[in-house]
Amino acid sequence: MFPNVPGAEAVHRTHGAGDDQPPRRSEDRVSDTDLFDLMDDWGPEKIVCVSDRRTGMRGVLVIDNTARGMGKGGTRMSATLTVGEVARLARTMTWKWAAVDLFYGGAKAGILGDPRRADKEAVLRAFARALADEVPAEYVFGLDMGLAEADAAIFVDELRSRGVATGLPRALGGTPYDQLGITGYGVAEAAQAVAADIDLPLVGARVVIQGFGAVGAAAAARLSELGARVVGVSNALGTLADPDGLDVAALTADRVVAGDEALRAAAGAGGLQHVDAALDLDCDILVPAARQDVIDADVAARTSARLVVEGANLPTSDDARRILHDRGVAVVPDFIANAGGIIAAAYSMDARTSAFVVDTAEVFATVSEKLRANAVEVLARSRRTGATTRQAALDMAQARVLAAMELRGQCPAAAVSRVGAA
């Protein structure tokens, strides 16, 4: 049995193969005591693990901290998903919302499974039914790794409400921010602002994008528009590099048609380099835009980049951050650099039940304004305090969350003394 923990709840619900209705809330507590390791004074407030015997669906929702508003964060699908991973990402969402000073709380959801599986739709529908108690009262589905706009539409259909998901296709009144490239656009805007701040001319600057997915491709396109020279991109198949610069416009267009295979086709007979080769290419700006923990201490010690802009969530280890800081490499932390998507999500949250669509020009303008200002502010805080840029950003975000917790009477004394801890 899972003992009572004030302010936190972990629940497991199973949908039986013979059930036609959404699974009933179970009072059986999750017995994995490792879940305690995920809890501190900030959260999580709730961990809900769900499963479905008919489809084999296994998933989790982590609601981290709702002091500033209801839980909001993306929903991902991965064959290697763990509860700990989702909890870490939910915590990142807590800081990300606070950093851009928008009033939602941190949350994240995930499904364990290959997003390319043939029965993906059935799995998504099972996941939506299993979380019907929480969605949309406490959490709203969003888009993250492994899910696209069409998948958000499945959630809406299953729960019979446009209010249960953001990131919907335009035909359903949504703002398809992955399709529009809003997150990657914000990454590029933050990069330009910080490059100017550290006297790194962006025109002609060599850029490497590690992870040429939705975020990476959009960042590459915007950086090219701003005059940078993209010399390397990578995806799960390998790395494509050219010191003279790649044809980003052609690559992004081909990616829409061929997906990851676009890089292999562009490489031709010479083939792609190893997938990790992107991290060792000579560059001025490195944009990790794929998975977490790709920049370790070794990569941090040898990279030639003067600026690292974290397009992915948690791509840099703690040791690597300190090494980069000590070397004088500027780092724009993930929850500052890639917050463009959540700004778009905030607009989408307001529009979920509206007959009017979001003005995307206004979204892009807000993303540029907020992310450029935040990126430069975090760098300035880092210089003043000697802390890493991530710690400086955390201090700013945590102070805002802590103020909300104190006003709502949620704040134990221990939390006050721990502001500044990741």
From TrEMBL:
Q: Which UniProt keywords apply?
A: Oxidoreductase
Q: Does the keyword Oxidoreductase apply?
A: yes
The name on file for this protein is Glutamate dehydrogenase
User: SMART domains, alphabetically?
Assistant: ELFV_dehydrog
Indicate whether Oxidoreductase appears among the record's keywords.
yes
Domain of life the protein comes from? Bacteria
> Pfam families given for it?
ELFV_dehydrog, ELFV_dehydrog_N
Q: Where is the Glutamate/phenylalanine/leucine/valine/L-tryptophan dehydrogenase C-terminal domain?
A: 174-409
Basic and acidic residues bias: where? 10-30
Region: Disordered; residue ranges are 1-30
The record's section on Gene3D superfamilies has: Leucine Dehydrogenase, chain A, domain 1, NAD(P)-binding Rossmann-like Domain
Q: Which family does it belong to?
A: Belongs to the Glu/Leu/Phe/Val dehydrogenases family.
Coiled-coil regions listed in the entry: none
